[in-house]
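Students often ask why we bother encoding 3D structure as a string. The short answer is that it lets us treat folding as translation between two languages. Here is a chain of 238 residues written in the first language.
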Amino acid sequence: MEPLILVDQVTKAYRSGTVEIQALRNISLSIDRGRMASITGRSGSGKSTLLNVLTGIDRPSRGIVRIAGTSPVSLTENELAVWRGRTIGIVFQFFQLLPTLTVAENVILPMDFCNTWPAAERKDRALALLERVGIAEQAQKFPSSLSGGQQQRAAIARALANDPPILVADEPTGNLDSRTARSIFSLFQQLAAGGKTIVVVTHETEFDAVFDQRIELEDGTVLRSTEPQENTSCALVS
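And here it is in the second language, the structure alphabet:
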């Protein structure tokens, strides 16, 4: 069976004037359903570019990318936007919640865009997701009144709105204190245990043990990759 995420001999090059810069160089990797994988590496190693390729934000210059059985490069921009909304939930370091919408309205927005749930059911689903991430009482507040940890939980609820099989997080705890960061990683573990595939770009070495697959990049290549093995899951972060 094909892995949920498949990257085969992918190169991503940019041009700066007459110079070609290779951000990714013949990268190959795979991540199976229900895994929790980290992508690490120094600044400039290609982490963000790889994340953009996985989410269809960037198209590879060469190579094959298949996500949940679909090649993003085969889609038009409109098709890509809908595919991304239904297939990949994205959690950003700086939350990216719309300040003029309540927390519940922020969670409803992806459902409105992709039309994945009947309109009459969207509010109840948003409230259920906020309950799942532990901030149901914040539903009618605006993001500015929430703590950083609460905003990140709201962002995770929004990423789950269309029930995507994959959740991608870009430095999700970079602006959070250590206690709140542990609670976010614990939540990710619970989601992975429920069948979601979690891919996290992170500098946080404290949480290495929670991942059952770790991919380290250097200069646009895979420096090392630990392949998933049986019984690699550890106890929940506390």
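Translate back mentally: Residues 229-235 have pLDDT under 50 and may be disordered. Keep this in mind for the problem set.
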